[in-house]
Design brief:
This protein is mainly β. 0% of the residues lie in helices and 58% in strands. A hairpin with a 4-residue loop joins strand 7 and strand 8. The radius of gyration is 14 Å and the shape is elongated. The model has no long low-confidence stretch (mean pLDDT 97).
Length: 123
């Protein structure tokens, strides 16, 4: 099994920055895709950014140019650098790991989610 633990959330003023981290642990050989999602109150969970093991990335239009996703494959850790934060970025941010290969080289039949970390952008 795989566990994901997010960190780095908090309260920041508009225009400020935060860096989120998500560390995956367990009997992991590799994780092909890691991503950040967020969910604001009353809204659907949405993809913020994703990155593959080959460093291919994609971003939601709303965060392009402001957020940067990166990863350390050796540590099975994904990061989200968030700059120029806006009040509408306020949400619980969740880490996701998909297409996991386990230590025995078998493939996952499910994805994994972290517990979420709160990001609040407010004056």
């Amino acid at each position: 099994q795989v566990q994901l633990v997010e960190s780095g959330g908090g309260v920041v003023q508009p225009g400020g920055s935060l860096r989120l981290s998500c560390a995956a642990s367990g009997r992991i050989f590799s994780i092909n895709r890691m991503a950040w999602y967020r969910q604001a109150p009353g809204k659907q969970r949405e993809l913020v950014a994703a990155i593959t093991s080959g460093a291919s990335t994609n971003y939601a239009d709303s965060v392009k140019g402001r957020f940067t996703i990166s990863r350390d494959n050796a540590k099975n850790t994904v990061y989200l650098q968030m700059n120029s934060l806006k009040p509408e970025d306020t949400a619980v941010y969740y880490c996701n790991a998909d297409r996991v290969t386990y230590s025995d080289r078998s493939y996952s039949i499910r994805d994994y989610w972290g517990q979420g970390t709160q990001v609040t952008v407010s004056s």
